[in-house]
Amino acid sequence: MIIEKSKEEKNVTDPEEILKSPYIFEFVGLRENKNYLETDLEKALLSHLTEFLLELGRGFSYVAQQQKIKIGSEYYYPDLIFYNRLVKCFVIIDLKLGKLTHQDIGQMQMYVNYYKKTQMVDGENEPIGILLCADKDDAVVEMTLGDTKNIYASKYLTYLPTKEELIKIIKEEKEMYELENNIKKE
């Protein structure tokens, strides 16, 4: 049934069709307000890889964890690398425990540029960067990204939100969506 469904799926050209926010990582067993490191979250996600792929959405395939890349004279280690067969591109995921910063976004831009210049082959779309963060300031994200189309910041939760929290999240996302669409129309 899954194979039949995948054959029916159309090719996706807009990366936003495969993204969501927030992602719910309740399956990893990390609880709210507990002290853990990014590496703890990364290990928990990979030990529950099937559930993580299902939470990411359609078309994702695992490629690497902490892949060593050399840029100039320095080595860098993006947290997780996936390939999405529907969008036909690499998806680089960096995990952030706290509030997302402009430095985090700049680092992701560097990773996306690296994959674009060194890993893409003919017929593939440009790589996508996803910053999964516990918190973000949408104004900082917007100002840092500017017109950049292939980097996204999404929140994650390590627990299933309460009804009230879920209503708040939906309202915030709706307001951001309406604000973005009103700005684009002007």
Description:
- This protein has 186 residues and is α/β, with parallel strands linked by helices.
- The protein is built from six helices and eight strands.
- The chain has helices at 2-8, 38-47, 49-56, 102-118, 138-145, 163-185, and strands at 23-24, 60-65, 69-71, 74-76, 80-84, 89-99, 128-135, 151-157.
- It has a six-stranded mixed sheet. Strands 3-4 form a two-stranded antiparallel sheet.
- The radius of gyration is 17 Å and the shape is globular.
- The termini are far apart.
- Mean pLDDT is 77; it is low at 1-7.
Compile the SSE list and pairings:
Elements: H1 2-8, E1 23-24, H2 38-47, H3 49-56, E2 60-65, E3 69-71, E4 74-76, E5 80-84, E6 89-99, H4 102-118, E7 128-135, H5 138-145, E8 151-157, H6 163-185
Parallel strand pairs: 1-8, 6-7, 7-8
Antiparallel strand pairs: 2-5, 3-4, 5-6
Q: Which spans of ≥5 residues are poorly predicted at pLDDT below 50? A: 1-7
Radius of gyration, taken over Cα atoms and rounded to an integer in Å? 17 Å
What is the number of independent domains?
1
Structural class of the helix and strand makeup? alpha/beta
* Arithmetic mean pLDDT: 77
* CATH class designation: Alpha Beta
Question: Which second-level CATH architecture applies?
Answer: 3-Layer(aba) Sandwich
How is the biggest beta sheet arranged? 6 strands, mixed
Strand residue percentage: 15-25%
Question: What is the CATH third-level topology name?
Answer: Trna Endonuclease, Chain: A, domain 1
Number of strands: 8
Question: DSSP helix count?
Answer: 6
What oligomeric state is this?
single chain
What is the general shape? Answer: globular
